[in-house]
Amino acid sequence: MAETVALRERYYNEIAPRLKETLKLRNVMEVPRLKKVVINIGVGDYRDNSKFMDQAVRELTAIAGQKPVIANARVSISNFKLREGMPIGCYVTLRGKLMYAFVDKLIALAIPRIRDFRGVSPNAFDGRGNYNLGIAEQIIFPEVNYDKVVKVRGLNVSIITSARNDIEAKALFDEMGMPFRKTLSS
After folding, report:
1. Is residue 159 within 8 Å of residue 130, measured between CB atoms?
2. What is the pLDDT of residue 48?
3. Per-residue pLDDT for 153 more than 70?
4. What share of the chain is helix, strand, coil (3-state, %, to 5)?
5. Does domain 6-176 have CATH number 2.40.420.20?
6. Is 1 exposed, middle or buried (0-12, 13-18, 19+ CB in 10 A)?
7. Which residue pairs, CB below 8 angstroms and at least 24 apart, start in 125-128?
């Protein structure tokens, strides 16, 4: 349990006061913080084999520590052989201690295990202070047993913050230790 609250305690004790000074904020409530993390796995080949969805749910449960929700198609698309109501993926929303534990694990353990890793993109912010990270293989997480993986899948991690703009959000992620790719202008 000590490692699960390490980032949360570090945020409140070190990161938030430092951000308040560097961003020249007057109130501690203005300091950007994490609100939630949404992890999503698309299972488009569900119509070929329904066991792929069960496998994706098991892996996402292991990664996030919380049972995911199965997402169903809202509309039918004949070109993709997709019918309305057909399961197409699963997602999980993390808040509180689980959120901080996941972000800590993502930064410290999972991202460094990416093959040929040169840093995450500093351009993946959405203009409102939120960050989206696409991960090509779920096997970078230590909870996923490589021998039991039926199919290597990608997943999307959306980190929603209370930052008002991308500059504040980037400062928050820099303080947390997110390994951003060095650009030519930096």
Report:
1. yes
2. 65
3. yes
4. 40, 20, 40
5. no
6. exposed
7. 125/166, 125/169, 125/170, 126/166, 127/165, 127/166, 128/163, 128/164, 128/165, 128/166
